[in-house]
Structures are given as structure tokens and as C-alpha cells.
Amino acid sequence: MWMAETFSSWLAGFTVCFALVASIGAQNLFVLRQAVSGRHVHACVAWCVLSDAVLVGVGVAGMAQVLDQRPALAQALSVGGAVFLLCYGLIAWSRLLPRRAGAGAALQAGAAAPPTRRAVLWALAAITLLNPHVYLDTVVLMGAIGAREPGAFKAAFVAGAASASLAWFLGLALAGRRLQAWFARPQSWRVLDAVTGCTMLGLAWWVWSGTQVA
After folding, report:
1. Among candidates 84, 83, 92, 73, which has minimal Cα distance to 29?
2. Which end of the chain has less Cβ packing within 10 Å, N or C?
3. What tens digit of pLDDT does each residue of 5-40 get?
4. What is the DSSP-derived secondary structure letter of residue 106?
């Protein structure tokens, strides 16, 4: 009986998290870009899984109620996230601008000096922690759902969420590796940057609109 209830809580966390994480967002696009370039992929996957587990755990422990009771804090996080997403989208679009002959193709193909693992993880951490959509999914939504689990089964719910995150980001990394041949063409990078820019600006507008309504 105990095993069945534990598995039920784990499955609930897995299902909800997988449904939320499997969408085009800032974090997913960043991991996909790293997987395509073949740089620090394992570190990125580890960070994403760990951050999801921690954020869901914090939400289950009660942070969802704290944010609900302090709208000023939630709004400040949203405004900061909107600004960050706007800047990230504009940077992605800036890579579409024409460059000097020879230099542009090299940069678009990822031939520029590769960033260090620390720089990549700092960028991924910023994308994760400054994006209010992440808090909405993990801390608020999943936290509220997981908080309903009785006692010790909350841990099973968080473990299920972490398992879903691991499965998704490993799949994303594998998909990125299989797309390396396609991204050997500079034009493919331009397509990815265009999609990234549109996505980030769309998310920024969505987040900013939410702060105005609030």
C-alpha cells in the first residue's frame, strides 16, 4: 500500500513536470544550442535538473504561499525577468545582423572562441532564475500541487518532477547532437537565433503584460 501511494505521488510529479517543461522556452533553447555546439552539455543538463528539483521542493515546502501573500515581491521578480528576456531576445536577433566577410560565417557556425563552462553555467543560471515563468511553473503551480501530497509523499512528488526534468533534458541534449550536421550550415544558426529572439520577446511581453494587470 505504501509503495503504491509513493509511486502515485512520484507519477504525479513526473507527469505534471514533464507537461510543463516540454515547451519552447529560454532554458530549453539555451540547452539545445549548447547541445548542438557540443559544449558543456552535461553540466547544463545537471544544472537544469538540480534547479528544477530545488525550485519544486521550495514550492512544495511553502514558497508558493509566500509569493501569493507578497504580491510586491512577485511583481519585482516579473519586471526583472521581463527586462532580462527582452535583452536576451535582442542579443539573439543581433546575431542576425550582417558582419564583415569571413567573420560572420565563422561566428554563426560557432567557430568563435568557445565560452568556458563557468560562463555557460552563469548564463544558464541567469536564464533560469531571472525568468518568472520558471517560478510560475515550478514554485507556484507545481509547489501548490505537490503541497497537497500527504507527509512523506511530498518527497516522492519532488523526485518524480526531477525524473521528468532529467528525461526531458537528456532527450533535448540527444536531439541537439543529432542536429549537429544540420547546424553545420551558418544559415541554420540564423534560423535558431530568429526563433530564439521571437520566443524571448514574446515571453518578455507576456511577463510584462502580467505585471501591468497585477
Report:
1. 92
2. N
3. 788 888 888 887 887 776 667 788 888 889 888 889
4. H
